[in-house]
Amino acid sequence: MPSHKRFSIHMAVGRRLPMYCTSAGRAFLSTLPRDEARELLRRSTLRALTPNTLTQIPEILKLIDSARELGYSWASEECYRGDLTLGAPILGANARAIAAINISGPTSRWTATELRTRLAPLLLETARAASGNVAAASRIENARRDL
Fold first, then answer.
1. pLDDT tens digits, residue range 44-64?
2. Residue 9 lies in a domain
3. Domain count within the chain
4. Which letter, b or e, does each residue of 81-108 get, where b requires 16 or more Cβ atoms within 10 Å of its Cβ?
5. Residue 23 belongs to what H/E stretch?
6. Is 73 a domain residue?
7. Do residues 20 and 60 lie in contact, with contact meaning Cβ atoms separated by under 8 Å?
8. What domain range includes position 71?
9. Which CATH number goes with the domain that contains 134?
10. Contact 83/9 with Cβ under 8 angstroms?
């Protein structure tokens, strides 16, 4: 949902961003076993999109580990200058991510600490609700198949 305050980064529908440097991507990776996440990173082309983009696998894995612990991830100006993001996974029936959601805030109005403190709880609540809806839909679909 766009904010009523102007700050625009044009993100065309269907645009893809690398998982290694986005909060949503790292949140998604945090639901994988560490070795599997490491292997995905190893097979990826890790290039800097901004001066802040992390491209070293050990640094990225530390953030993924933190996301695994906290339930959400963050990125600070790694894809776009002036953009802070938080991401959380939407979990499927097997507790692995099937999607991820994110919140962005401009550095002109937020610090990374403010964004995490004020918006991470809302992000987590939304991700849990979406995950619960996915699980409920899966149970309904399985029950229909069993009929």
1. 999 999 999 999 999 999 999
2. no
3. 1
4. eebbbbbbbbbeeeeebbebbbbbbbee
5. helix 23-29
6. yes
7. yes
8. 19-146
9. 3.30.450.40
10. yes
